[in-house]
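in:
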């Protein structure tokens, strides 16, 4: 929720489903959007780099292996959030549906990065957003 006060993050006393609502100032929300955009833009280069990492030769990493490792780490990070919201079944189902679609998109992107440069893949992939 964006408030008109750009100086600080305020917490409302009301509760929605056990979670506390936070109001972000205008500049705080813009900075958060900039951070998210920066993280999203490094995705293609990092996937291309992960495909070339080789600890013990011979190395031929399948993009599905890289996707599995990356999503396993993110799932472990999200487990406490899932546990805190375990009674909100519709929210969990919607999150699983969204996660499945993002996973399929990510695996297709990783497969494409084997055959085309990261810049071209980034341009084509960003057209869908």
């Amino acid at each position: 929720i964006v408030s008109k006060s750009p100086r600080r993050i305020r917490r409302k006393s009301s509760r929605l489903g056990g979670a506390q609502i936070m109001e972000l100032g205008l500049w705080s929300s813009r900075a958060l959007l900039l951070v998210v955009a920066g993280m999203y833009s490094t995705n293609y280069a990092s996937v291309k780099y992960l495909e070339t990492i080789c600890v013990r030769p011979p190395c031929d990493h399948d993009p599905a292996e890289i996707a599995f490792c990356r999503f396993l780490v993110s799932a472990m990070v999200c487990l406490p959030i899932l546990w805190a919201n375990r009674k909100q079944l519709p929210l969990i189902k919607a999150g699983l549906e969204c996660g499945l679609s993002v996973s399929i998109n990510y695996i297709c992107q990783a497969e494409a990065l084997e055959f085309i440069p990261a810049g071209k893949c980034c341009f084509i992939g960003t057209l869908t957003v």
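note: The beta strands are 10-16, 19-23.
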